[in-house]
């Protein structure tokens, strides 16, 4: 077999041949195994051609060897990888396959029926991952194209909580820069062992966990999905060194720890304390969660900030003080600035919108030249997130259009109000939004999840909150829900919350 590629992630893997790369439900696989499996996928895709020339290849596979081999095989063959959410709604998969113009979709036996129903009428070729094994015998063949770093590599769809999902296109150069920045900042090494329990259609799992591990020759155990007790078992038994997750996963791990026997708690806490680094991101980490995690494991979670379009941009330090409620400083190779409404950098200590520049920033939105054009200003990508720098460290105030409420002439951060409301003894979880209002511009509205056997009325919440918040930040609308609507990455779908306040009995 000769898998030809100059792509850094895959070329580097050749150095780690015999080391364990991936552990999944099917077993333990070395870098050599991974390269061989990638070769078979490339051969199956090329079918005698020399280059896919940026054909889009979608894939719907469970996290594991097959997933990574497919991504690498597509890349070696010169295609653009379009990871699909595993087991997603038909309408969503249809949208991704249509929008990306996929020529082929690779799936497993479990998803093949659902995928074929969408692919067949559109003339999209369906390739079963297992069928790539037919190329096992082609040992002496060559596969791989001369793919330059400037070529497009991947399309990841944004979570689309506020608009239609957009296809974020990254080049091989972008992906390499995103990985290299994290490897440097968090000091990944071949001795690391990590666990993937995040879905693989999002930058967090793909870049921060799997690709970073494989860049350095580390081992990555991949779970099909998140399950709190399974994750705790892996922490207890697998000698992990590094773990990354979203805030809701930490909340669920805390609940599972609370529910465990005294003896198991002692074991879990002891083994967890041995990891060298635990990271949180993709949504704001409540300070209460950070504190509780520290109590039970001794770890101060390292919070970082990033997005699909830019990879990671800001991070608390690996060594040195991590500030609760803050996301730290720019990562290596990443330029960050805060700008005001006049598009000029704000004065130190003022609120502004985050703009990011550098090799980690994506190339374009797929098939959206105009949207791509206005997403950038003078070479800077406009993130749409608002932040402030305090004590030299960035604090995220939220999405500019969703979380920065304008009420009675004041600009208010929904995330700040949520952080305060979580301190209320009856509130287990909450989300704050702005509701249009003739008098105030927007009214502060809180959706809360109450702790068991608790009640909360708007007047009592307001009385309590006035002690902690300026009057204009105190919620004037309240609803209680069984759970907040969240997407697969644990982000609250705020636009869908507003409708719940429209019902006449929405307030309590
Ligand atoms: P995604 O592209 O799905 O990763 O979503 C990126 C968005 O998640 C950012 O634009 C932020 O609004 C939000 N986000 C990511 N990390 C954080 C963080 N540490 N704190 C607050 N918001 C975050």
Give a short summary of the structure:
With 508 residues, this protein is α/β, with parallel strands linked by helices. It has 15 helices and 28 strands. Among the domains are: 2-147, Rossmann fold (3-Layer(aba) Sandwich); 198-300, 3-Layer(aba) Sandwich (Rossmann fold); 404-502, ANL, C-terminal domain (GMP Synthetase, Chain A, domain 3, 2-Layer Sandwich), CATH 3.30.300.
Structural summary, described in words:
The protein is α/β, with parallel strands linked by helices and 508 residues long. Among the domains are: 146 residues, ANL, N-terminal domain (Rossmann fold), CATH 3.40.50.12780; 103 residues, 3-Layer(aba) Sandwich (Rossmann fold), CATH 3.40.50.12820; 99 residues, GMP Synthetase, Chain A, domain 3, CATH 3.30.300.30. It contains 15 helices and 28 strands. A 9-stranded mixed beta sheet has the order 3-2-12-11-13-14-15-16-17. Strands 18, 19, 21, 22 and 23 form a 5-stranded antiparallel beta sheet that branches. It has a 4-stranded parallel beta sheet with strand order 5-4-6-7, with helices on both faces. Helix 8 packs across helix 9. The longest helix is centred in the first third of the chain and has 16 residues. The termini are far apart. The site of adenosine monophosphate (AMP) has 18 residues, from strand 15, strand 22 and strand 23.
């Amino acid at each position: 077999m000769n898998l030809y590629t100059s792509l850094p992630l895959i070329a580097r893997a050749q150095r780690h041949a015999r080391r364990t790369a991936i552990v999944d439900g099917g077993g333990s696989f070395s870098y050599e195994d991974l390269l061989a499996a990638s070769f078979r996928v490339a051969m199956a895709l090329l079918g005698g051609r020399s280059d896919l020339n940026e054909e889009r290849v979608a894939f719907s596979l469970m996290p594991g060897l097959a997933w990574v081999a497919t991504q690498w095989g597509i890349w070696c063959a010169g295609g653009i990888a379009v990871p699909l959410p595993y087991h997603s709604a038909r309408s969503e998969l249809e949208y991704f396959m249509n929008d990306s113009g996929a020529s082929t979709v690779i799936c497993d036996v479990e998803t093949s029926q659902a995928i074929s129903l969408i692919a067949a009428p559109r003339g999209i070729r369906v390739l079963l991952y297992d069928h790539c094994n037919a190329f096992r015998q082609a040992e002496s063949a060559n596969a791989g194209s001369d793919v330059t770093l400037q070529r497009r590599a991947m399309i990841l769809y944004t979570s689309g909580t506020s608009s239609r999902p957009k296809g974020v296109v990254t080049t091989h150069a972008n992906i390499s820069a995103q990985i290299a920045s994290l490897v440097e900042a968090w000091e990944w090494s071949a001795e690391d062992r990590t666990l993937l329990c995040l879905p693989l259609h999002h930058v967090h799992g793909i870049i921060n966990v799997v690709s970073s591990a494989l860049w350095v020759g580390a081992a990555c155990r991949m779970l099909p999905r998140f399950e709190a007790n399974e994750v705790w078992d892996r922490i207890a038994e697998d000698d992990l060194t590094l773990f990354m997750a979203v805030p809701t996963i930490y909340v669920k791990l805390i609940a599972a720890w609370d529910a465990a026997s005294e003896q198991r708690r002692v074991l879990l806490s002891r083994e967890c304390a041995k990891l060298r680094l635990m990271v949180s991101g993709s949504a704001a980490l409540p300070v209460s969660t950070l504190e509780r995690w520290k109590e039970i494991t001794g770890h101060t979670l390292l919070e970082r900030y990033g997005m699909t379009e830019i990879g990671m941009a800001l991070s608390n330090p690996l060594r040195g003080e991590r500030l609760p409620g803050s996301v730290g400083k720019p990562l290596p190779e990443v330029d960050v600035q805060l700008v005001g409404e006049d598009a000029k950098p704000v004065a130190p200590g003022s609120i502004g919108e985050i703009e990011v520049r550098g090799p980690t920033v994506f190339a374009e939105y797929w098939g959206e030249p105009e949207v791509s054009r206005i997403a950038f200003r003078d070479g800077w990508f406009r993130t749409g997130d608002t932040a402030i720098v305090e004590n030299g460290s960035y604090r995220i105030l939220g999405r500019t259009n969703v979380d920065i409420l304008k009420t009675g002439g004041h600009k208010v951060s929904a995330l700040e109000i949520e952080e305060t409301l979580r301190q209320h003894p009856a509130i287990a979880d909450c989300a704050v939004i702005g509701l249009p209002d003739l008098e105030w511009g927007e009214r502060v509205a809180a959706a809360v999840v109450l702790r068991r056997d608790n009640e909360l009325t708007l007047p009592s919440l307001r009385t309590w909150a006035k002690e902690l918040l300026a009057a204009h930040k105190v919620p004037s609308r309240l609803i209680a829900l069984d759970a907040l609507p969240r997407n697969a990455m644990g982000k609250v779908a705020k636009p869908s919350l507003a409708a719940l306040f429209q019902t006449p009995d929405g307030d309590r």
